Known about the structure:
By secondary structure, the protein is an alpha/beta fold.
Amino acid sequence: MQGEHGEIGLVGQANPSKSEEGAGPAAGSLVIVTVEDGDPEFAKAIEEQLSVVTAWWKAGPEPGEGFVQTILRAPEERHDVERFLHSSGIRDAAEDEALVLYITSHGAVGTSTRHFLLLPSTDTDRLLATGMPTNEVVIAALDSQACHVLVIVNACEAEGIDVELRDLARDLVRPESPGRALNVVATTGARSPVLGREFAVVLRMAFEWFQDAAGIARPYLSISEFMQALEQATDRLNEERDLSLAGPRTVLQGKLGAPTPTLPNPGYRPKPQVVTEAREEVAATPEELEYWLDRASGRASRDDPGWYFSGRQELNRRLTSFVKGPAGVLIVTGTAASGKSAVLARAVTLSDSAFRASPRYAEAVSKSPANTVPDEGSIHVAVSARNRGPLSLIEAIGTRLGGERDRTQPAADALRQWQEGLRTFFTSRQKDTVTVVVDGLDESPEAGACIRDVLVPLAGYAGGLPGMADGISIPAQAADSTSAEPSSDHSGLRLLIGVRSTSPGTPVASAATGVPGLVQELRLVFPAAQVVRTDGEGVQADIAAYVTALLAGAPWGTDPKVIASAAERVARHAGRSFLDARLAAEQLRRGDGVALLRDQLWLSRLDRGTVGLFEQDLNQVGDDGLNREEALALLRATAFGLGRGMPWAQVWPAVASALLQARIDHADEKIRRLLEGRLAGYLTHDIEDDHVVYRPAHEQLGVMLRQWPQPPHEMRRALDEPG
């Protein structure tokens, strides 16, 4: 609707009525009050602010989504603002409505320490009569029914609202609503002018930082995170423009660390739920699945669901047969990068009911070779042992199975509680068989303890015999946890274990090394276990098929015979490493593949494996606008992350700078280029503690980056040692 002196309506809405029949409730409301002073430059500054504000608290595509945006433009006198407060419905915001109020204006603090908005008709000698008391606008929002309110005051001397607001806030406390989160932010301090374009820049910098570098993976931010981003943006603006802005500060705040719906996260991207939670640690990622389903390079024909689903048929058949059979143990092993995790991930993914129910993947399931597709629900739990000790691993298995700790055991011995809890789980169930996948056993920092404290107690349920673990040293806290001796009507266990082997898969090579390792230790615990190797005699043909799929559709590969010849040549040089084959194929796709395959220097780098291929990419990062040494430091930093990976925010740039022993200027921009360029394939991402984290795409890459630089023969030997 139109006011006498200002426009009152909805930004981006066809109809200003918030109560339109059938419109549905709003997830939130954004109320904006802008006061102009007749200066065209200040009007432009206001528009720049509003472009960021309306993008951050944006309207949703459907009713009940996003923020309904209501704006008062250029009021002339106090009455216009008072009428807007009445007509906008700000005081009537509902309890479940996230309410955001943004005020931008010139302002002044009177001798009474009261803060006023300066309107075009304001007489500065008569502020009480002609100015608009700022806190009357602020309190209109804070005294609504809304549980979550955010007010941002961008005016001259905005912090001057503080003293009066604290007194007024005493009347806002509602004992029946302890969960209210009321936050008020002032952008300027005493004797500071309103931030026009400057605050627009600060807000936009913060907005863009949250879009990627902050790495926060939940839908809402906390006021603490919001203020930290504004502070960082202010510091950056001060540095770039040689300013000395103090930056925004809170004058009223709720719980600092609690996410609030008044602060939507610009970087939040809902994670596609491809499989159920009990299997997602090992299952294929959405990116992997989409790669093979969407890209032309993944399909040999319209009837081919992609190499991921149709390749390595003999291995996939063995796994499928196992999960359809009786209780037992299957060890999936092979040398580094020979595809252990990929084979397990495929089986876990195809067994998941949510995955199979998705129309997006139905065709891939139906067109996969039938004897390589596990029965739906045949794999119950799949976990990764990466960076897990025995307690973390057994807890991950137990909770996903639906088991509970045995609280009759000593509270200080959580490991024993879970051991006995799992014993109860299996002995109290009917005669069905449960399938558990444990991948990456070699990536546990306590792999031996995981075998003794987690797998040994499960041996009996997997078809083992009492006493089979007598040769295994049991730690003190589990001294009496020998193999289970269940009754004949206990639930059985199929256990699939993915573990890196220290010796190659050919009989001659394996005999030559004679190195004991985790596989041998597992065979002591599970003497009847089946063993499937991913690096056996047929691996070269599997790699050639894999590279053929990766190269299909390459600009230089219109002739299938050329592609097949290139794939066979890569397979001969890549040995048993699918990782090296992938890196080589990516380089061939990006450039002139025919010329590269004739380049003896490139072939010699391929012979050196991961190290040589990485050097090839590293030498060309200038094409991505990156400095070679800085790019190397950024990549190496991710290899030193604990847990699931390295968070971006301030951590990744700081670690990279420490490794480089020099500051990396504009590090966030360089990380963005890294993630969009040729080196992106060396990294993967995950989520830990509500933050996106980054790590090398394979542990072999992590070993290489941590030990860089080394002479080629020393690096090759290091990569072959146990992880």
